[in-house]
Amino acid sequence: MSQMQEYEKVLSSSDTSVAAFEEHGKSFVKRAQHFLHSTPAAVPLIVLVLSIIIFGIAIGSRFFSSYTLTLILQQIAIVGILGAAQTLVILTAGIDLSIGVIMVISAVIMGNCAITYGMPTLLAVIVGLAAGGACGLLNGLLVAYMKLPPFIVTLGTWNIVMATNFIYSANETIRDADVDAQAPLLHLFALSFRVGSAVLTAGVIAMVLLVLFLWYVLNHTAWGRHVYAVGDDPEAAKLSGIQTKTVLVAVYTLAGLIAAFAAWVSIGRNGSISPSAAVTDYNLQAITATVIGGISLFGGRGSILGTLFGAMIVGVVSMGLNMLGADPQWKVLLTGVLIIGAVAIDQWIRKVSV
Amino acid sequence: MTEQAVLTARGLTKRYGRVTALNNCDFDLYPGEILAVIGDNGAGKSTLIKAISGAVHPDEGAIELDGKQVHFKSPIEAREAGIETVYQNLALSPALSIADNMFLGREIRKPGPLGSWFRMLDRPAMEKRARDKLTELGLMTIQNISQAVETLSGGQRQGVAVARAAAFGSKVVIMDEPTAALGVKESRRVLELILDVKKRGLPIVLISHNMPHVFEVADRIHIHRLGRRLCVVDPKQISMSDAVALMTGAKKPPEDALAA
Q1: How does it sit in the membrane (chain A) (predicted)?
Q2: Average pLDDT, stretch B84-101?
Q3: Mean of the per-residue pLDDT values for chain B?
């Protein structure tokens, strides 16, 4: 009894003031760290601008022409769209190794439906989108309800979908001319507009609009905030009342759907529909764009605008080195440097709270 | 106590495989009080709290809120019924802003087509309400309501979590070890917050290992031992060492302890 009252007396005389926290003088580096922490797309944007300037100086007006710069955009449209899908998944602290092959099988399904089975092209597109969404849904269900690690799930579906693609298509390419003759709608995203020497394709515009749309959804809707919360701390998200499983399934399904949309864009860009595109490392390119764009592989951090910049960085570097006549392996090497640099910067920015 | 209890539990039992976490446990919370729950590690305090906050489904037993039997399938249902919980890990998303965190899972949308068609969040309204709540609870040191939670100090984070519970809890606020990870100064703030919440008429369940804190703010102490309520004591009539003796089994509870 007496012991307790003594204790209370000490307490009442000890501290009644409101907790105050000292502001330490911040150095420039600290302030930069805080700025980057609150503006995650700034790093890739700075790198993008720097790389354009560097190659511009090295190559001259040939590189700075609006023709070259818009050509870069055309080259990255597919990877940019896949990167947007990958971003959604990585924001939930997952990874999707299967989106590249989901794109290829969706393209094959769209082509087969429209040309081999003679369906109306619009219906063929819808079937293709549904197929992509279904693959994503499978990933999502396995991740959310079976609680399997996303890396393993999508490594499995990557192989399953790739094999299905080759078995189903018998590795037969649908020729450009056949698509043009029977299903011109599949070439919709090849439409191009000229503004002076700048050439914009519908695919490029679709990529930019898609990224802007997803940026809005991620930052200004409750669902978008939930995607971040699930990736940031799934346990906290669950206790805060978020249906984490539903969010995960929706994210993977949407990623599959976007991959199928990329398929439509890729038919426009490539002309023909080739099942053997499944061996191209589209998924790794998409992951590269996402990581260089500053999306944290640990989830919950980064802006989807960064992914767009990340894809552009890769496009600028490869075009620039190409125009300089460098060995293509230099592009691969530089990409590797950029990936490690991006992750290192991500780790540094994370330390802002410590 | 002749008042009707806000929250009661009778005969709660929960087993995890061969481990019994709750063994025919009872629980009562009366209006406007601070009820502390103390017990050894592994006594089943957390399971009891999870059962009444909807995170765990008891195998047996009944829970009543305001005299009506409830069966929470998830923490969301408990929240909708007016039971807010401040978890030990705070359940905050570090990368999201203070306002986003306070409204996580119950966001406010813009009025009109912007909200209903474009599902746009009403950030200004959320930030204003978040700011009002923090001010109401005296958390004036947070300058920027849109800063990420991870940039806050431990005490401030705790304050945000308590403010969230106080803002939305309409029946009961449960706090699991709210001062465990905090320094003296921050603990002080959180204890004041708890008393502020009590002043606003909300009953509070406080789980803590910190005897001085428990004895300072609690109106009654529920001593948990071996998966059940051993006794309920009045902190003004018992010493801290007796409470510890009861909870560790060094002392037998007095005959009338349950009536306290």
Answers
A1: Multi-pass membrane protein
A2: 88
A3: 86
| pLDDT cut 90: percent of chain A above it | 69
| Whole-prediction pTM | 0.86
Q: How many Cβ atoms from other residues are within 10 Å of residue B48's Cβ?
A: 29
Nearest CA among B73, B42, B56, B52 for reference residue B9: B52
Indicate yes or no: CB of A1 within 8 angstroms of CB of B95. Answer: no
For residues A257 and B124, the answer to whether their CB atoms sit within 8 Å is: no
**Facing residue for B76 by CB, picked from A221, A241, A352:** A241
C-alpha A223/C-alpha A220 separation (Å) is: 9
Q: Which A positions 201-230 lie with beta carbon below 8 A of chain B?
A: 216, 220-223, 225-226, 228-229
Kindly state whether B55 is in contact with chain A, defined as any CB-CB distance less than 8 angstroms. Answer: yes
Q: How many CB atoms lie within 10 A of CB A213?
A: 12
**Residues near B74 by Cβ (< 8 Å), separated by ≥ 6?**
B54, B55
Q: Tell the residue number behind the tokens 């910067």, with chain if given.
A: A345
Q: For A3, which of B85, B184, B239 is closest by C-beta distance? A: B239
Q: Tell me which residues of chain A, numbers 274 to 313, contact chain B at a CB-CB cutoff of 8 Å.
A: 300-301
Q: Which residues pair with B7 in a beta bridge?
A: B29, B65
ipTM of the complex as predicted? 0.82
Identify the band that residue A4 occupies on the pLDDT scale cut at 50, 70 and 90: very low
- B1-57 pLDDT, tens digit per residue, is 457 889 999 999 999 988 888 999 999 999 999 999 998 888 888 889 889 988 889
Looking at the complex, does the CB of residue B122 fall below 8 Å from at least one CB of chain A? no
Q: Do A18 and B141 touch (CB under 8 A)?
A: yes
Percent above pLDDT 90 for chain B: 27
Quick: pLDDT tens for B154-180: 778 888 888 888 888 889 999 988 887
Burial of A344 (0-12, 13-18, 19+ CB in 10 A): exposed
Asked if the Cβ–Cβ distance from A232 to B96 is below 8 Å, we say: yes
**Is residue A327 less than 8 Å (CB to CB) from chain B?**
no
- B248 reaches A (C-beta below 8 A): no
Q: Which long-range contacts (CB under 8 A, 24 or more apart) does A277-281 make?
A: A277/A104, A277/A107, A278/A100, A278/A101, A278/A104, A278/A105, A278/A162, A278/A165, A278/A166, A279/A162, A280/A100, A280/A104, A281/A100
Strand pairing partners for A24?
none
CB B62, CB B42: distance < 8 Å: no
Query: How many beta carbons lie within 10 A of that of residue A331, not counting itself?
Result: 17
Query: What are the CA-CA distances from residue A58 to residues A305, A318, A326, A338 (Å)?
Result: 27, 14, 12, 19
pLDDT tens-digit readout, A194-219: 888 889 999 999 999 999 999 999 99
Mean of the pLDDT values across residues A58-80?
A: 91
How many CB atoms are closer than 10 A to CB A175? 15
| pLDDT score for A345 | 86
Decide: helix, strand or coil at residue A331. Answer: helix
Top residue of A7, A30, A215, A225 to mutate, by most chain B CBs within 10 Å, is A225
